[in-house]
Every structure is written in structure tokens, then in C-alpha cells.
């Protein structure tokens, strides 16, 4: 194997930074309120661009003559191998709905000298608060202008994969299996795997490039459920309401106040799970509370659902006229439940990162990836770093060196699978 460990080589030989800057300028935010796939038509613009770029690199399609985007916004391509087997590389096209992605204007801070970076609009990235920045002195740092998110989640993953493909095309002698690529929509709203063309993709193993800072490897995610509580009260004119009105909002407040603060996102870290109310809507007559439930242990997650039902039962007992309905639905499960049965996958991923001259940082994700569901669907899909920091907001940034390190790790991973056959 030819180990790729020099990010400068990647930056000089590929268009990885140019591609990244091009991708982030396109607004690709997904929309949870939409029922379509992709959830927003604007994701298709980047999908078309990617299909064209893959075609220009000389890749073929998967079951088709050339790289293509299907009707659901999934872009598929294939680089034929010179060794047996297949490996998948995946990244998502959409950016998070939590903060605007319209009019992204990336700023490149060449040769970062240390200290705080004033991004714009009062946004400051300070290494005393973001320790990763202190490791990037001398690097080119890409930030927003303070008005938008950046979109490194996950356009850095797309760029890193494209950079690896550039090298693989330029050096056909590098030992590799057939490499299949899928760039998919709607990961940020939990639907990236919903219409993933799994049978057509047909890879025994795949990797998402959707992680954080250098060396990060994710083999564990939260197990996740969504809970919706609907409260139905008794609506009466407030002037004659004594003894008659049942205010749904009042009881919504009681329920929210009864959630344990120590088990909220703002009070937990590491392997701690949480209850997290994300939305409340309605009025005194009826209202709806949406929560997400998270835990690394699926059995503990299910217990969270039972605890939530106990809180609902307490409200029913307190006010029998109040309608209380709880619905808990599965979102995704900890990928470790399956990946623990595939130790060779984790071992090869760690070897690829070490070969890039980086210490692997095995880190459980306090969230999920498309790989969570793809793994549960039968395709083991751990996650690799792509370099971004401070996702989903105006303080998001990435080092071009770390972006190139992701490409190095991907190239090493492909070669290891080529040797393994």
C-alpha cells in the first residue's frame, strides 16, 4: 500500500478546496415539514453538479452508463477496481435547517496565526473555547462571514471523497476494489436512508465521511426515538371558566417542568442520554409537544419512553377531563449494536487513519448519521472525520489541512480493502 500521509500533496494535486468552496455556496438546506424526497428542490442543484463532476472524472454509473442522480436526489457513481470486492463511500448533500444556509459567503483565512478569528456580524471563534483551533496554527481556515452556517456538514465529506477519486483516477495502479459513491439528500432531517438505493448500491461495507475534527472515527451513535404528546383540554370562555376550563397549555407546562433537568441536553455529555423538547404548538384547547429521546443503550432508551408515559399518566390522574396521548416512534439505533459483530471493519478504518499519520480518535456520536440506519439495514457503515467544527451555526469552520487529511484516510482505506480483496 502507498500510504497517503501528506495533506499538502492532496492540496496541491486535487481540487478539494476549490470544490468545497463551490459546494458551500449552494443553498441545500433540507426541510422537515416537507413530505417530498428530496425535501427541498434546491438540493437537486448540487446533485446535478456532482453527477457532472463524477462524469468528468471518468467514473461510470451504477447499473447505468454514466453517473446519475435518481428522482429522489441520490447521486450514484462507480470507479471500477483492479482488485476483487466493492466498498461504498457516502456523504450527504443537505445542510441543517436550524440556521440559514442562504447566501453562504465563505472566507479563507490564510496561514492562521493563532488567537481569535473575527468572522463577522459579531461572531468570534476563539481557541480558548474551541480547542481544535489551537491545533491549526499555520493552516488556511475557512469560515462563514457570520451571516450563515458554512455547510462543512457535510460538504467537506463530499469534497474529501471527490479528492480521493481524483487521485485514484490519476493513479490507476493503486490497489483498489470497485468503489461506489452515493451522495444523498436529507440526512439532517433523519431521512437520508429512507430511499437509499441499497440493492442497487450493493456494497458489503460502506463508510460515511460525515465526522468532525482530525482522526475522529465513529462506531457508536445514540439510539433515537421521537415522542409526540397531544394534550386536549376543555375550552370555555375565560370569564365563566371556573370549574369548567381545562387549559391544555397549563398542563403542557406542568409536563415540561416535570422532565428531569439533569437529563437534558444542556446538562449531559459523554454517554449520558436525555429528554429534549424541541417544539410545542397549539392553544388552550389543544396543544402538541414534540420531544426527542436519546441514549446509547437501546434498553435505557425504551425505559425513557416508559418514564414519559408515567408522566402522562400522572396528568390524566390529576385531571381526568384532560386528554393525553403519547406516541413514540423509532428514529434510528446505535450502529455499534451491529458493528460490534464486524471488528475487521473498525480495524481497517483505524489502520487507514494511522497510515495518514494521525492518531485515531474513537468517539461515540451524540447524534446519528445515515450510517446508523444503513448499518441496521444490512450494510455496515461507520463514520470517518471530514474536518468541520462547530456545525450548524455561524461559527462553523474547517481547516483545509484537516480536510486533506480526510482524503488521505479515504485513500488509505480504499487501498487496504484492495489488498484485503
Tell me what the structure shows.
With 421 residues, the protein is α+β, with helices and mostly antiparallel strands. It has two domains: 7-221 and 334-420, Aminopeptidase (3-Layer(aba) Sandwich); 223-331, Alpha-Beta Plaits. It contains twelve helices and 17 strands. It has helices spanning 7-13, 16-24, 43-56, 131-134, 152-170, 198-201, 248-258, 298-318, 336-339, 343-355, 370-376, 400-420, and strands at residues 68-69, 75-79, 86-92, 107-109, 117-120, 123-125, 141-143, 178-184, 206-211, 216-218, 223-232, 274-282, 286-295, 323-332, 361-362, 383-385, 397-399. Strands 1-2-8-3-9-16-10-15 form an eight-stranded mixed beta sheet, covered by helices on one side. Strands 12-13-11-14 form a four-stranded antiparallel beta sheet. β12 and β13 form a beta hairpin. α1 (7-13) packs across α12, α2 (16-24) packs antiparallel against α5 and α10 (343-355) packs across α12. The protein is globular, with a radius of gyration of 23 Å. It starts with 6 loop residues before the first helix and ends with a helix. The model has no long low-confidence stretch (mean pLDDT 97).
